[in-house]
Design a protein that fits this description.
With 598 residues, the chain is of the alpha+beta class. 37% of the residues lie in helices and 21% in strands.
Length: 598
């Protein structure tokens, strides 16, 4: 059913603009369609080559008409299915077909989007690079009936995007309506959508510095708020004209689609500022989905304190809810408010306050403590620095990053951040600087260090936030926090040997006690230079940053358990997986482990 908004304006525009049919002969330069705030409401904008709205074209460029080719968007729906169904997706190995035959030429052309001859590509990198061979349903063994049952069970698909239920329709020349693409994206399961969105952020930066430069206007205006798969094909009514764009989600999970003449990357480069301007009116960056991983903060790490209730009584240990006061020996009293994210413990008579936050919540709390969110451009630049510093400098603790609330690292507000700080962190969600160390200071700039006062002055002078970053860190590049196409596997043989020695004993403990655990094949372990450890369940690979400390080994154990639980819902239960990892590393007896955990 068409939204009330579009149904109301179509007849009126047709009556008021009798020349609309003639105007339709010239296709609009850019069309943008996204989901509004109300369920079922679609917002649509059409522009000419000069960026002017084309209201007269609305009746003839109906977003409900079947006129948009899928292009490579079909790969995104296969990706979503693989993630949600937890199906194995073996790497594709590029063979570099030789010979002058048409088949060999076609294979070389297809593999150009994937990898160099002799190399391989995984699921996430294949999505970023748009490697069609990887997602071929026949290669992955996808059965048409299983595909149909999966998508027919998703809300709205049968009524608004029936083409998605047919595996045979997954080809670039399939023509559908832009509105049905939005309905299909809206039907994506939340977990699969979030994983896809995190991966697709890398698509904005292309495969080269030149590609990243061409999308500067789009990144400048959208930050990390646009997560789309690009597509390119031909206009159904004009096969000689290239037609492309992108489709995916905004940071708050709402689907979006846009298209124009040229390839998807060309459309983003040519119309980036216009797309950002149109979508900026609807962005709610403080409501973005949480980024992967977690951050543990040791508050007031260098100063003794006592935590009291609002009435002056000593606060009890445990998870905190409500209002408290932290009192320091110098007489300073700091009021704070907790909503279950802070935990109080006491060791040797000393209070210890630990917070556990999402990455963007952490960034917002640093902005709240260290800067002024009303200085928008400077604060956006600082938020990228804060996130980058966290990934580079924090210690690994299980599946979390651990860092102190300290002037030696980054000071963090123990109170929930306000809406302006959340909006700043949400706007740059998922964006980091790579290629050089980064840091900041309140007033003194230096190599690899941005001064807040300098950033504010540049902001007042009209410099965009990304330019402020580029001037402060000329040797660093703005990039997606998790770019799978840019993560090579540096074989970590020491960790593989250690894990092979531990796994048989773990299997005896876990058998019959950790529901859903299936001993995985011996995984390849990759050494991370920086960033949060993770496991690739479709490839059976684990990425960790070390093996020297107990926490390093717990992290490796944690990710190994994720591989073993890849076919069971408990694989998403981070607390359960972390408890088991620590029990296994503690070396407790079989009975003690069995009694301690369900």
């Amino acid at each position: 059913m068409k939204s009330l908004l579009l149904r109301a304006i179509l007849p009126a525009l047709t009556a008021c603009c009798p020349g609309a049919q003639a105007a339709s002969a010239a296709a609009p330069a850019l069309e943008i369609l996204w989901q509004g705030d109300a369920p079922g409401e679609l917002t649509w904008r059409v522009f000419d080559a000069e960026g002017k709205p084309l209201a007269a074209n609305v009746p003839t460029q109906d977003p409900y008409a079947a006129r948009a080719p899928l292009g490579s968007l079909w790969k995104l729906f296969v990706y979503l299915w693989l993630v949600e169904e937890r199906r194995p997706a073996p790497d594709y190995v590029c063979t570099g077909a030789t010979g002058a035959s048409a088949a060999a030429h076609a294979r070389r052309t297809e593999e150009a989007y994937c990898c160099t001859p002799g190399q391989s590509i995984d699921r996430n990198a294949a999505l970023v690079r748009s490697c069609g061979i990887f997602f071929a349903p026949d290669r992955l063994g996808i059965a048409p009936q299983a595909w149909r049952e999966f998508w027919e069970a998703r809300p709205g698909v049968r009524a608004h995007a029936p083409w998605l239920t047919e595996l045979a329709a997954l080809k670039p020349e399939t023509v559908v309506s832009p509105a049905s693409i939005l309905h299909a994206l809206a039907a994506a399961p939340i977990h699969a959508r979030e994983e896809a969105a995190n991966v697709l952020l890398a698509r904005l930066f292309g495969d080269s510095a030149d590609a990243a430069r061409k999308t500067t206007e789009l990144v400048r205006g959208m930050g990390g708020q646009l997560r789309v798969k690009t597509f390119s094909w031909h206009r159904p009514d004009a096969p000689g004209i290239r037609y492309g764009g992108g489709a995916g989600w905004l940071g708050d999970g709402r689907p979006v689609w846009f298209a124009g003449e040229g390839t998807g990357q060309q459309v983003m480069a040519r119309h980036g500022a216009l797309i950002a301007t149109a979508l900026a009116q609807t962005l709610s960056p403080e409501n973005t989905a949480p980024t992967p991983g977690c951050v543990k903060v040791n508050f007031f790490a260098r100063y003794p304190f006592t935590l009291e209730l609002a009435d002056g009584k000593t606060a009890p240990e445990g998870i905190l809810q409500g209002c408290y006061v932290a009192r320091f020996p110098n007489g300073v009293a700091l009021p704070l408010r907790a909503n279950g994210e802070l935990t109080l413990t006491r060791q040797n008579g000393r209070d210890r306050l630990e917070g556990r936050f999402g990455v963007d919540d952490y960034v917002a709390r640093v902005i709240e403590r260290e800067a002024d969110a009303t200085e928008t451009g400077a604060a956006r630049a600082l938020s990228v620095v804060v996130r980058s510093y966290l990934l580079n400098e924090a210690k690994k603790q299980g599946n979390c990053l651990a860092i102190e609330d300290s002037s030696r690292a980054q000071r963090v507000s123990p109170n929930p951040p306000g809406a302006p700080s959340r909006a700043i962190a949400g706007f740059t969600s998922g964006l980091v600087l790579v290629g050089a160390p980064v840091g900041y200071h309140s007033v003194t700039p230096s190599a690899h260090r941005m001064a807040w006062t300098t950033a504010v002055a540049a902001d007042h002078a009209g410099e965009p936030w990304d330019v402020i970053l580029r001037k402060a860190f000329p040797k660093a590049d703005l990039a997606a926090m998790y770019d799978p196409a840019g993560i090579p596997c540096r074989r970590f043989t020491e960790a593989e040997t250690w894990l092979a020695a531990q796994a048989p004993h773990w299997h005896r403990i876990l058998h019959g006690r950790l529901q859903g655990f299936e001993a995985p094949p011996a995984p390849r372990i990759c050494l991370l230079a920086h960033g949060t450890p993770f496991s690739e369940q479709d490839r059976g690979r684990i990425h960790v940053s070390g093996l020297k400390t107990v926490e390093d080994r717990i992290t490796l154990t944690h990710e190994y358990l994720h591989l073993g639980l890849r076919h069971h819902p408990s694989g998403h239960d981070e607390e359960l997986v972390e408890r088991w990892a620590r029990r296994l590393m503690d070396g407790e007896s079989l009975n003690e482990t069995a009694n301690a955990l369900p």
